Amino acid sequence: MSRRAMWAAMAIVLVGALAIGSQRDGPVTDEARVRRIGSDLRCPTCQGMAVADSDAPAAQGIQEEIRRRVAEGRETDGQIKDFILSLYPDISLRPETRGLGLIVWGLPVVAAVVVVGGLAVVLVGRSRRRRPGAGVSDDDRRLVEQALGSP
Amino acid sequence: MNAVIGTGAVALGLAGSIIGVVTLALGLKRGDVRFLRAGQKYVWVVLAGAVVATIAMQAALIGHDFSLDYVARNGSRSTPLIYTITGMWSALEGSILLWGLVLAGYLAVMAHHFRSRASDPLVAWATLTGLVVAAFFFMLMAGPANPFRVIAGAIPADGLGPNPLLQNHPLVAFHPPMLYLGYVGFTVPFAFAIAALVTGRLGEGWLVETRRWTLFAWGFLTVGVVLGAWWSYEVLGWGGYWAWDPVENASFLPWLTATAYLHSVMAQERRGMLRVWNLSLLVATFSLTILGTFLTRSGVLDSVHAFSESAIGPMILVFFALVAGTSVGLVAWRGDKLRSPGTIDSPVSREGAFLANNVAFGAFAFVVLLGTVFPLIAEALSGDRLSVGAPYFERMTMPIGFTLLFLMAVAPALPWRRASTEVLHRRLLWPAWVGTLTVVACVVSGIRGFGALVAFGLAAFAGAAAIRQLVLSVRGTRAQGLPRWRGLVGRSNGGMIVHLGVVLVAVGFAASSSFGHSRQFRLAPGESASLAGHTVTYLGSEIIDQPNKRTFRARVRIDGGKVYAPSLHQFPFASQAIGSPSVRSGPFDDVYLTLVAAADLDAPGSTAVIGVNVQPLIAWLWTGGAMMAFGTLLAAWPRDRRRRPPPTADPAPDDVRHAADGMLEPGGMPGPGGMPVPTAGGVPGPMPGPMPGGVPAPIPDPAPEVRPEPAEVPG
User: Fold this and answer.
1) Quick check: B447 and B514 in contact, CB under 8 A?
2) Do B454 and A18 touch (CB under 8 A)?
3) Do B362 and A42 touch (CB under 8 A)?
4) Residue from B301, B288, B289 nearest B374 by CA
5) pLDDT band for position B267 (50/70/90)?
6) Which of A2, B17, B580, B690 is deepest in the core (most CB within 10 A)?
7) Taking CB atoms and an 8 Å cut-off, how many pairs form between chains A and B?
8) Looking at beta carbons, which residues of chain A come within 8 Å of B425?
9) Residue of A nearest to B379 (CA)
10) What is the 3-state secondary structure of B492-560?
11) Which residue has the higher pLDDT, B259 or B682?
12) Given A35, A39, A92, which is nearest B387 (Cβ)?
């Protein structure tokens, strides 16, 4: 088996396994939904702990309300969360993706793009300079390209 | 009495550090060796002050000397001895004292180690920097965070005792000291970094001097962080171990930058690259320990671990600004001398991988820092109080974690300078198959979930790569006629064992956060409930009265086997009862029990609410942490010089050679294979006096260009 074929085979096996493995394992249970909503909300009386993790009475109360609404089955997770947040405005553990929240979500992404992009430009530029023909200026190149008359 | 001795000792420490700084500064200004020698000796005065203050504090705690405000708040007659002793770090003032003690200890070891080089300006500047830091902490103790403040008014007959959470698990005796040994340990490399900047000896000399110090500090910090997670798991009773809480983040941030440093420093030692970056990472690590102290001790952020709050915030913030400002200024001033002689040839190379590693760790630290301080920024900008919690951190750090696992798998196989596809193919093929087949095996055995599968696959890939390196190294040492275990020591090999520990932690983290189950059951005595394949049977409860607390204890049988006892403790001065979980740990999963509501014992047969939490592979986290500590020790293991192969020995295969990367000893000894050691700028080893100007000499390319691709054992 050629070298390339071996890696290609591996890639196919891997993608196939991940594709099967990413499918959901049965329908989402109510309890899983309650947990998921509760993980995004901070317990109002304890410091920094999620509603889903806390035994404090306030957290248990919120969890009961979430459980009731999930069992009714009329609202989406987002709607239930919005309802709880209308009662307790500042207990979201997940910053919103608008307004100030954009900074906390967006800044790392922007920084990553700038840093990785910058490094790529520098490294590519350097390796190009190192190739035979280093010392050829961009003007020279343009001249050659013109002379070759690319259509 | 204790107050007098303690206050005197703090004053001694403060005076010793200030006089030491002044003496060293004078000696450096005049070039007077006697002043430099004398200045270094003041470290011992500082140590004496710290030790006596600690003894006075312990004497006060153990002797229940409630005339001290601190003892009255954090000690009590009914507290068991171990928690009386740990009371020293149960609140702010005592924690600062512990910090001072550890710092004085480090400075003393440093002074002893460099005693014969007291006249070397590099050492003198480093000692001076260390003493400035010590002066700051003693100043805190002498002023706003005075542990020996005498109580106002009548002396109480008994004290309040430590925070209830800090007196029901023995880990409290280990986690904070370990963490502080890590935090404070970074002062030494930081001091040398500053010294290198000031003296202009910016080559690799100071790096080599401080390599082992950094490694030990990193090892202690790792152990401290893991023990903190373990404490959280065993005590807080919510079933988790990492909540992305500000205090946890504060300990994690310097760990991230220090880990980045440990990797990028190899690119500098080997190729003379990334000089400014490495200095910046060290400075950042030290600054982050100070910033972390500010964030967690000033009360600006809410946290489950914020056991001490006071008015020292502004002072710490000023010190942080001073550290950061001075360092940035020095780096800017020396910028021209910091130009690196080495450059990257190809991104697909060992140094390229270190660069990518640093970008990933930098991004990780940036995300954690941003998320931690964002509530403060938001409140300042708009007045909104908002929280940034686990959902944010998990979403943002997961891709970075995957990147790091991938790099961990690929980087050890990459040669320096440039990798050919041939080499990549040969070295990565079977580790990659191990990763792929792990994913297949997981899917076949019914595990679902993209994130977890990717994590398991990458972890297996990285683990296989690390094992491959170790096997090659062991074979190589045996071929040299050395005992087999020698193939496991040294920086690279120890590092691979640390990598295996990280793999265990990553697998444990991914599994426990993806596949946990938790539920509460209201059970009458004799009733059973089951969750995730485990059955718990509630047998009954009892009340135990102890001098310092009243305990409600439930007896719960797990899977028809042993009986476990989750409890609730009612401490006299705490309003809320504190739960004590009880955990059955196993290699595959943990069953974690909490008593949520105790039964009414006056009504026989009444029900209790038991919380049951089943999470897979939790034990892998602690095992991985232990493995990381063990690997750090191996990496720092001193090499036996007499047994080093003669310089004329055949060049070992590439992999084995990398295993010997840690062998650039101070003194510019030739490494194995007679490799010339890069010694640019600062000369490592015994200094022949200060370097004139310290201009980095244009060094010949340190890595031998003509090295043939290794004739490797086919694997």
Assistant:
1) no
2) yes
3) no
4) B301
5) confident
6) B17
7) 140
8) 3, 7
9) A100
10) HHHHHHHHHHHHHHHHHHHHHHHCCEEEEEEECCCCEEEECCEEEEEEEEEEEEECCEEEEEEEEEECC
11) B259
12) A92
What is the DSSP annotation of B231-251?
Answer: HHHHHS-SS-S----HHHHHH
Average pLDDT over residues B588-608: 86
Q: Token pair for residue B500?
A: 């295996």
Contacts of residue B362 in chain A, CB cutoff 8 Å? 115
Tokens of B223: 């152990």
Listed residue (B452, B459, B451, B457) closest to B437, CA to CA: B457
Contact residues on chain B for A94, CB-CB shorter than 8 A: 389, 391-392
Question: Do B90 and B163 meet the contact criterion of CB atoms below 8 Å apart?
Answer: yes
Tokens of A131: 């190739």
State pLDDT tens for residues A13-24. Answer: 999 999 999 887
Q: Provide the shortest C-alpha distance from residue A137 to chain B (in Å).
A: 20
Work out the number of other CB atoms within 10 angstroms of the CB of residue B132. Answer: 21
* CA dist., res. B604 & res. B524, Å (int): 10
- DSSP annotation string for A45-58: SSSS-BGGG--SHH
CB contact under 8 A, A14 and B388: no
Residue B150's identity, in one-letter code, is: V
- Say whether B239 and A53 touch across the interface (CB within 8 A): yes
Assigned token pair, B85: 């002793």
B654: region left, alpha or beta (phi > 0 left; psi from -120 to 50 alpha): alpha
Positive or negative, the CA dihedral B272, B275, B285, B668 is: positive
CA distance B560 to B545: 29
Band (B422; pLDDT cuts 50, 70, 90): confident
How far is B303 from B243, CA to CA, in rounded Å? 10
User: Considering only CA atoms, which of B468, B501, B473 is closest in space to residue B487?
Assistant: B473
- Does B111 score more than 80 pLDDT? yes
Q: Which residue has the tokens 């780096």?
A: B331
> What pLDDT does B538 receive?
95
pLDDT in tens, B651-666: 333 433 333 333 333 3
**Within 10 A of A97 (CB to CB), how many other CB atoms are there?**
10
- For A123, the token pair is 């490294």
pLDDT score at B254: 96
Q: What three-state secondary structure class fits B120?
A: coil
More confident residue, B236 or B358: B358
Q: Are B543 and B601 in contact (CB under 8 A)?
A: yes
Report the gap between the CA of A71 and the closest CA in chain B (Å): 17
Question: Using CA atoms, how far apart are residues B413 and B592, in angstroms rounded to an integer?
Answer: 40
Intra-chain end-to-end CA distance of chain A, in Å: 42
ipTM of the complex: 0.83
* pLDDT confidence tier of residue B299, bands split at 50, 70 and 90: low
